[in-house]
Every structure is written in structure tokens, then in C-alpha cells.
Design a protein that fits this description.
alpha+beta; globular; Beta-lactamase; 3-stranded antiparallel beta sheet; 16% strand; 9-stranded antiparallel beta sheet; 402 residues
Length: 402
Amino acid sequence: MTFSDSSHISAAPLRIALNALMARHVGVTFPSCSLAVLYKGQPVAHGAWGESEGQAACTDTLFDIASISKLFTTTVFLRLVSSGRVGLDDALCAVLPAFARSGPRPIEGGQDPHTLKRQALETELAGQLVDPRRVTFRHLLTHTSGLPAWRDVFAIAGPVPFPPQAKRPLDGDARWAQAMPVILNYPFMNQPGQRVVYSDIGLMLLGQAVQVLCSQPLDQVVETQLLDPLGLQQTMFNPVNSGRATLRQTAPTEMDLRWRLRRVWGEVHDENACGLGGVAGHAGLFATAMDVARFGQAWLNAPEQLGVDAELAAQAKTAQAVTDDVRRGLGFVIKSHHNASAGDLFSEDTFGHTGFTGTTLWVDPQRELVVSCLTNGLYLGRAAHAPHVFRRELHDLLAQSL
């Protein structure tokens, strides 16, 4: 691995400590890992460990960043708010009118993303109806919309996609056209504004709203309005199918024995994002650790680079909705008070996001510290995937070292 010199830190002790930490977790928590750490705007650690499918991880390896993708969707939407194109408290149906055409709809239980089984409805919600006209963009960004956390969209979006290296054209538009009437009409799980319930469905709809507002596909909006201005050339949707990367330049994830019946490699792990053509508001981006860190650095101290108004950026990075110990900004997760994946030593102002594949981005504004850690822990299977202890150890180590 490589380290940058810094007047604030001796690279050797940190290198030794990180190598020791990784030695305990490579092959146990994940097969491959790439880390980028920026301190006071300068890189102090940038390295990779492990291997997958006989390919050693390197700092240029593209990892499926999973739900960290949500932050990119959030950012392009907040650009639109900053430019006056849309308001935080505008109704979702003002941009997606079909969302409200059903009229009031029922509250039902959710669906388990692992077993696909439907979940029981909370007794106190039985018989209640929700007027979809009440749902605002603020609700989507804070995960307080009342929309379901997850539904098996991939099952109604079309047949299993071809492997990414098949180089057949993706039919994302057709898949979205088939799925959208269903997504727009899912029953609610709660009343809007009542509690934080993390919702992939809400971010799918936010991504579709961005497309309508910009009259462009979401991947093009993210690229032209965010990735290109920031110089994030190693962040992309559909890296292999698009021809921008080879299979070996990406980190493989889970062996999908439920739907694709193949090792997920070079294509987004998230079934719904994959079923929709690889581009969605909630998942789909691949990136290097350094690109994700540079995105976090922009949010730390240069929101004007993002095209986001400074006051709005401040709201995005601070708690806007809280349920129990779950704290949400506008798109961002705000560090919880207890047992946080960012560890115990990062400040309570820390903001960021995690991804189901084993990825994290945490930004501590008090320390001026940005940590991007990308792994492919799901390669080992969902039953073995337990990144929480590693995440806490890593961030506490860095806080103590810096």
C-alpha cells in the first residue's frame, strides 16, 4: 500500500497499524479492501489489501458502492433545489403526477429482502389510509415518506439480465417502463413524517424525479452535473457493459443463487438496480476508494463545487429527522450516539453512508477527516457478511492516529 507524507502524522506507525487490522479481517470479513483517507484535505493513507478470483485488489479496483450511490442522487437533486428548479417541500406528485393518481392507499406490512416474505402490519396502523399527495421530497431525503423499505422490483421489471460481459445493449428504459406503474402504487408502511424507515423505494422515485426535472437519464445527469465537474473519472454505472472497465478491474460480490444464478461480477449487486438496467437512484455506482473520498471532501468544505447552496448543504449534513438513535440529514446518515459503524471516537457531527456490499464513507468535520473504505464482503455470502466490527475498529484506529 502507499502513504502520503504529512506534517501531522508519521506514516510508518499508521501503516503498521492498518496492516495489522487488515490481516485480521482479509479472508474473514472480506476478501478485498481498498481504503482512502484524507486528513485536512490531504491524502494520508491510500492502499488496497486482499484478492478475489485470483486478482489482487489495487487502489484502482472498482467496487460496487451500493447505497453510497444514494448520496450522488441526493447531491444532483440538491443542486436542482439550489438552482430553484424544485423545492424541498414540494410534493413528489408535482414532478411525478402518476404517484397520486391512485388516491388514498392502504398501509401494509413490508417485505424481507433476504427471504422475500411479506411482513406483518403493525396493529396500530391497521385500516389507515395514506394520501400520496402528502409525500414531499424532504420526506424522501430523510427517509420519512412512509413508503416501503424494500420490495422485489426485479421480479416485475423483466427477465434476468445477461451477464455484463455479454455486451448486449441494456434495456433499462424498457425495464423502468414496466416497473414504474407498480413502484408508483406500492402500499405505504407508515404515515408520512412519522418515523425514519430507510427506503430504497423512496430513492428510486427521487432518481426518477431527477430524470424528469433534467429531461435526461439519471446516469447522464450524475455524470455531467457531478462526476465530470469533480473530476471523478473512476466512478460510473455499468462499468463492464459500457466498455469503460474490464471484468478484472472490478471486485466481484455475491454468488446469486436466487435470481441470476451466477457470481455477481462487473454488474451491480443490488437485484432491483440490476433488474432495472443497472441505473437507479438507490444503487448502481461503481467507484474507487479515492473517488469516493474526494466526493466526501467536496461535501466537507466546498459545497460550491457540488453546485449546492451552502445553507442547504449545512442542512444535508445535520440531523433533520430522528427516530430512536437513527439520525438522518438530507440523504446523509448522521452518526448515531451508540454502537455507530463510524466507531466511538468520530465526532457526533460525522456524516456519511454505508453500503450493503461492505462499503463506507464517513466524514468527521471536527477532525477534517474523510474515510472511504470499500470492500466486497458479500463475496463470502450474506450469512458470513458482518462488517460492523471491522468498520468500528478501522474508524477508531484512524481517529486515534490522526
